Amino acid sequence: MSKYIEGIHSFIDLQIKKAKNFYFTRDQIDACINRASMDMFKEKLGLPEDYSVAKAVPKISLQRTQILQDHLEPFKIRVNINISSGEFTVPTNYVTITSIGYQPADAAEEEIGLEVIDDAHWHSRINRITAAPSLDNPVCNFLGNKIRVRPAAITSLKFTYYRLPIESSWAYTTVDSRFV
Questions:
Q1: pLDDT of 158-171, one tens digit each?
Q2: Cα–Cα distance, 71 to 62 (Å, whole number)
Q3: How far, in Å, CA of 89 to CA of 138, rounded?
Q4: What is the pLDDT of residues 72-109, one digit of tens each?
Q5: What percent of the chain clears pLDDT 90, i.e. is strictly above it?
């Protein structure tokens, strides 16, 4: 990957010097690469700008084809999260959720998924007598940078999400007088 980034830096430097006899710093080129990388990531994930009333899904989005899922697989993270007071903080590199569930105390059972509830339905759902959240039918809700979980008896979750791309940075070192 570093050779690829170094090649892009060299190419951009060459093109700029040829065209305008002008120079961009490595940090400015890194910023351009990071912006292009983020634009490509957002496009494959599904640009929110492409959503409209008549078209519920953009022409390019995560769930449309397997190849897009394969391209985004390196950005998929699955973590075990311990919960205190019925909520946890969303990771700082979080982009979008793919799944959230917990493993019941009886390890023979499969993981049980949590239903994600929007703000408009949260209070009515957790206070409903006939269908209150239970260990068999748990729910969660995003609130700022936190996720609330009910029932509060759930103390650990398996949280799968897509993370932001890591920013590139051009750097090198020398080993035996060779650039690495």
A1: 999 988 888 877 77
A2: 9
A3: 18
A4: 788 889 999 999 888 899 999 888 888 899 988 776 67
A5: 17
Q: How far is it, in rounded angstroms, from Cα 41 to Cα 64?
A: 15
CA-to-CA distance for 25 and 18, rounded, in angstroms?
A: 16
SS3 (DSSP) at 11: helix
What's the pLDDT score for residue 141? 93
Secondary structure in 3-state letters for 110-166: CCEECEECCHHHHHHHHCCCCCCCCCCCCEEEEECCEEEEECCCCCEEEEEEEECCC
> Rounded to whole angstroms, what are the CA distances from 163 to 13, 41, 102, 159?
30, 10, 20, 12
CA–CA separation, 37 and 166 (whole Å)? 9
Task: Give the whole-angstrom CA distance, residue 37 versus residue 47.
Answer: 14
Per the structure block, which two tokens stand in for 119?
């703000």
Helix 26-45 crosses helix 2-20 at what angle (to 10 degrees)?
120
Does residue 109 or residue 50 have the better pLDDT? 109
